[in-house]
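stage 2 :: seqdesign
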């Protein structure tokens, strides 16, 4: 019997057992309720989204306390169907909210954020994949909050009949707005891309990072991996070497945690000691900043990383 065909009560019980069986190092308090409620109230009042909430990030309380948050632009419905991601999927996402740039900028001001990460669902339905929307939101944030630094975490911008040429131009559009850091995640090793990142390709993602450096070598680039999909240590090292070959500066590596029974199962829980070993390898390869631990996520300690 498949997970999807389990009766509701049995499905719920199975999920509870899976959560309870998590290794001890993956269990942590979510943070102060007051810090969470303040952010949640502001974003809900404005009908905007953060990946912190949509993805139920285990670090969101810590990040909010450090005056950092990651906003999810262009709605909450992604046009792709990755096997690991909790964000809603669909082929007909909502239209863009013309007031979103101002709402995000106002939220940044009200929350007193020093460092903001802008990410988005993948919008293959949009003419430029949403590249110009990133710029609109960045410009509005700077208008309201001139001192706030902005990092972007973009999709691969691969869509349309002329995807090869369009991808490069879309990356150029975002780079032209001069973000403090440009992040694009590989998510997993080359062998597992089709299984984990449906609709994405390893080389396409590496090209995003390559184009950033071509257009502006002074902008730090960043990428991230999730461990636990069945990758080997040798494959991880190969992936890190590929990232460095395109001068990727910063790196995040964390443990994949299954959001629900409908998502890909975890193949392995890597131990903190194994993460520490991989972190040392990454540092030896020349990454300027490495965050590598079970609960690390893409924007973890982003503001700290930016000051190193």
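stage 2 :: out
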């Amino acid at each position: 019997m498949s997970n999807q065909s389990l009766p509701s009560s049995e499905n719920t019980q199975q999920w509870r057992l899976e959560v309870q069986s998590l290794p001890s190092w993956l269990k942590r308090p979510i943070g102060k309720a007051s810090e969470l409620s303040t952010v949640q109230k502001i974003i809900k009042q404005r009908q905007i989204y953060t990946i912190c909430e949509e993805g139920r990030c285990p670090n969101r309380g810590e990040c909010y306390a450090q005056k950092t948050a990651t906003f999810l632009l262009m709605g909450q419905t992604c046009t792709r169907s990755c096997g690991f991601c909790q964000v809603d999927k669909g082929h007909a996402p909502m239209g863009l909210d013309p007031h979103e740039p101002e709402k995000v900028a106002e939220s940044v001001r009200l929350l007193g954020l020093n460092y903001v990460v802008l990410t988005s669902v993948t919008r293959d339905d949009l003419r430029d994949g949403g590249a110009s929307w990133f710029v609109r939101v960045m410009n509005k944030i700077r208008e309201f909050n001139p001192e706030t630094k902005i990092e972007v975490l973009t999709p691969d911008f691969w869509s349309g009949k002329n995807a090869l040429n369009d991808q490069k131009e879309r990356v150029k559009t975002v780079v032209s707005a001069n973000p403090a850091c440009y992040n694009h995640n590989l998510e997993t090793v080359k062998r597992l891309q089709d299984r984990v990142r449906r609709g994405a390709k390893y080389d396409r993602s590496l090209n995003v990072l390559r184009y950033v450096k071509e257009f502006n070598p002074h902008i730090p680039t960043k990428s991230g991996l999730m461990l636990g999909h069945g990758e080997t240590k040798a494959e991880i090292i190969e992936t890190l070497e590929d990232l460095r070959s395109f001068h990727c500066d910063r790196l995040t590596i964390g443990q994949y945690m299954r959001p629900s029974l409908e998502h890909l199962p975890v193949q392995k829980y890597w131990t903190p000691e194994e993460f520490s070993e991989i972190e040392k390898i990454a540092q030896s390869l020349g990454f300027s900043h490495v965050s590598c631990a079970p609960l690390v996520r893409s924007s973890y300690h982003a503001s700290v990383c930016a000051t190193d």
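stage 3 :: structure notes
- The CA atoms of residues 6 and 48 lie 34 Å apart.
- The longest helix spans residues 131-144.
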